[in-house]
Amino acid sequence: MSKDKQKIKREFKRLLCELAGGFNGYVSTEDKQWTIKGFIDVFSNVYTISTDTKVISKILEIHLFPKLMEFAEKNGYQIVLADHQNYYPDLTFVLAEDNSVKFAVDLKTTYRLPEKPEFCNGFTLGSHGNYFIYRDKRKNIQFPYNEYSGHFCLGIIYTRAGSQHIDETKTYNISQLRSITSVIKDIQFFTCEKWEIASDSQGSGNTANIGSIVRIEDILSCNGVFKKLGEDWFDDYWMNYGKIRASKKGTVITDIEAFVRYRKGDTSLINPCIRSNKKEEGADDE
After folding, report:
1. Could you confirm whether 7 is annotated as catalytic?
2. Residue 121 lies in a domain
3. Are the CB atoms for 275 and 165 separated by under 8 Å?
4. Over the stretch 34-74, which tens digit does the pLDDT of each residue have?
5. pLDDT for 282 beyond 50
6. Within a domain: residue 106?
7. Runs of H (alpha helix) within the chain
8. CATH number of the domain bearing residue 124
9. Average pLDDT of the chain?
10. Please, which pLDDT band fits residue 168 given cuts at 50, 70 and 90?
């Protein structure tokens, strides 16, 4: 990447972090509940939102989209949406004055674990399959992976309202809007490059997805497994995940320590956060 593009990338990251830092006032009430209370029909009936994580994730995305559009226009970018639901990324920011500058931005949501609120349920950070390996191809990706100058997560961590507070069968009148308990609260936003919060484990058992770390403090400080190793190690590890054996009769390598030893790298650079994060790991694809 040229020095000019590196400079543009640093500035884009700074601006995106600044944007994320201002979202709370937009999506939260004074008592830290989500400002979205439900669906409304033409008869002024309000229907409670499902507590399903995929429903919450999609509505949050719709809620934030006008602000993302404003951000793009203000800073000289055009937004290209994914052509298909399963394409990576959710949003592509293309610099208007130089179309070769593109940034991938995925909106990722997860919830705090009720019994251990210092941990969250984790994120999936995109596939480590076809488009990640063959970076000049366009299968399941909006533009080839190697055309992106950076890959970012705009992350959202929230607390789910207890089931005792939510009655999905109940219908309200619009005059009762403020009395409805929101399905989520204590919403927290952050921005990181996806490699910065990656773990060395898959995000889900049945698909080729990269998993995230799960300790919230580490996520907010972008303190992932590859923090000291760097992005090149992240790329190498995940492009070769489950394909290398340490020896002819050895097991397939699916952890960072074995991989770094195999590559004859410096294992002291493996971030210690891996120990505390992997104990609680179990990300869902939200």
Report:
1. no
2. yes
3. no
4. 999 999 999 999 998 888 889 999 999 999 999 999 999 99
5. no
6. yes
7. 3-21, 24-27, 53-74, 130-133, 216-220, 231-239, 256-262, 273-278
8. 3.40.600.10
9. 90
10. confident
Alpha-carbon distance of 24 to 72, in angstroms, equals 19
- What are the C-alpha distances in Å from 119 to residues 18, 211, 215, 279? 24, 14, 5, 10
108 tagged catalytic: yes
Q: CA-based angle 269:207:52, to the nearest 5?
A: 105
180 has pLDDT over 50: yes
Confidence label for 285 from pLDDT (cuts 50, 70 and 90):
very low
- 3-state class (DSSP) for residue 13: helix
In-domain check, residue 180: yes
- Is 284 within a domain? no
- Total count of domains within the chain: 1
Helices H, strands E: what count in the chain?
A: 8, 12
HSE value, Cβ hemisphere, 13 Å, CA-based, for 119: 18
> Of 106, 194, 200, 227, which one is the catalytic site residue?
106
Q: pLDDT tens-digit profile of 213-257? A: 999 999 999 999 999 999 999 999 999 999 999 887 788 999 999
Which among 108, 194, 200, 218 is annotated as catalytic? Answer: 108
Which residue in 9, 37, 90, 218 is the catalytic one?
Answer: 90
Q: Is 90 a catalytic residue?
A: yes
Instruction: Please list the helix, strand and coil fractions of the chain in percent, rounded to the nearest 5, in that order.
Output: 35, 30, 40
pTM comes to 0.90
Domain around 135: 3-278
Distance between CA atoms of residues 143 and 248, nearest Å = 37
Q: State phi, psi for 43 to the nearest 5 degrees.
A: -95, 10
